[in-house]
Amino acid sequence: MNISSIVIQTKPLHVKEIIAICEASDFCDYHFSDEQTGKIIVTIEGENLDEEMSKMKKIEQIPHVICADMMMAYSEDELDEQREMLEHSPSVPEILNDETIALKDIVYKGDLKKKIH
User: Fold this and answer.
1) Fewer CB atoms inside 10 A, N or C side of the chain?
2) Residue 83 backbone dihedrals phi, psi, to 5 degrees
């Protein structure tokens, strides 16, 4: 499941109209607005990035929307995939994945200057 926040920009006189459309829609959830700046905050959810992008395009097509920008995104699936990749990566020492060892007990004896090019 992916969840993303979108900032919609419009002219101040169209804020209430766009909020009403968002609240009546099935593709986003309205959360906050600033009528003076014309900014509206909504969230979208999707099973994958394609579904989220489809919903964002619907927001962009709302009359009087100047732009809609994704500000934050969260993806449970990608996070799990990244964790799995790190746990099985040969470049990550096994000690870092050992839950029985406290981080404070790990002593680094390397040289970061040699790693930076």
Assistant:
1) C
2) -60, -45
* 9 strand-pairing partners: 39, 67
pLDDT tens digits, 66-98: 999 999 888 776 667 777 777 777 777 777 777
Fold exhibited by the domain 2-77: Alpha-Beta Plaits (3.30.70)
Query: What are 62's two structure tokens?
Result: 């709302």
Q: From the centroid of its chain, how far is CA 91? A: 27
Q: Which long-range contacts (CB under 8 A, 24 or more apart) does 19-24 make?
A: 21/62, 22/59, 22/62
What are the structural domain ranges in the chain?
A: 2-77
What residue ranges of the chain have pLDDT lower than 70?
A: 77-79, 112-117
Distance (Å, whole) CA 101 – CA 98: 6
